[in-house]
Amino acid sequence: MNRYFVFSIFAFFTIFLSCSGSSDPIPPSQATLSLPANNENCSSGTSISSTQSSVEFSWSDVSGVTTYSLNIKNLQTNAEIIRSGITSNSISVDLNKGYAYEWYVTSVSEDYPDDQPISSKWRFYLKNDGEQNSAPFPAELINPKSGEVIELTAGIFEMQWSGTDPDGDDLTYTLYVDKIDGKQTTPEELNNISDTLKQVQLDSNTIYYWRVNSHDSNGNSTYSQIRSFRTE
């Protein structure tokens, strides 16, 4: 076998391998949520009984993903539903009516098991049969954070939260702050608050519990979760 023939065979396989070689896998991307729409009444649900609807969840189909995981949390009960191993970018889940929910999607890749980006978290309200106006979403407690140790200024701290209503109704708030459980009778000045922040007089070196009750203009109201913090 002459040298020219050997060289030709070597060159052929070099070119063949370089052309047929597969590219390296890419890390998974973050999904973009589509339905149910954020901070609105659910429009993708189909009633299956007097107490439940089948709700369709959908999101963008992103690169680098083997499967998706869907997490749904009931914002009143904190009960969670997790659906993993989803191979498409949509799925229907049966949910109880009359509750607000939060949901997000995790992108999962077999090639990058430790890299699992999470989508934004969206919320929606699933109406009861015949329900004309939905209750507000539970307020999100912003400041102080849960378990935080805060510094007072002249004995005062400015507490902050956010509120949303699925019908777009105007909201007012009742702020509960106490040393027992966040459920004690609140003073008059902490009722009927039209803003989402309030300065409160607090004692130093004390553990407090707090929550917010959101009221819409149709007589509906919803309590937030209770959080605790400590003053220096």
Low-confidence stretches: none
Radius of gyration: 26 Å
How would you state the average pLDDT, rounded? 92
Number of strands: 17
- Output the number of helix runs: 1
Give me the side-by-side strand order of the main sheet: 2-9-8-5-6
Portion in helices: under 10%
- Distance from first to last alpha carbon: 88 Å
Rough outline = globular
Question: Structural class of the helices, strands and pairings?
Answer: mainly beta
Major beta-sheet overview: 5 strands, mixed
Please indicate the percent range of residues in DSSP E strands (runs of 2 or more). Answer: 35-45%
Q: What is the chain-wise order of helices and strands? A: HEEEEEEEEEEEEEEEEE
Folded structure, characterized:
It contains 1 helix and 17 strands. Strands 2-9-8-5-6 form a 5-stranded mixed β-sheet, with no helix packed on it. Strands 11, 13, 15, 16 and 17 form a 5-stranded mixed β-sheet that branches. It is globular and about 60 Å long. The model has no long low-confidence stretch (mean pLDDT 92). The termini are far apart. With 232 residues, it is mainly β.
Put the structure in a nutshell.
The protein contains one helix and 17 strands.
List the helices and strands and how they pair.
Layout (H helix, E strand, L loop, with lengths): L2 H18 L12 E3 L4 E2 L3 E3 L4 E8 L7 E8 L5 E7 L3 E7 L2 E10 L13 E5 L13 E4 L5 E2 L5 E7 L8 E8 L18 E5 L5 E10 L4 E3 L3 E5 L1
Parallel strand pairs: 2-9, 11-17
Antiparallel strand pairs: 1-4, 3-4, 4-7, 5-6, 5-8, 8-9, 10-12, 12-14, 13-15, 15-16, 15-17
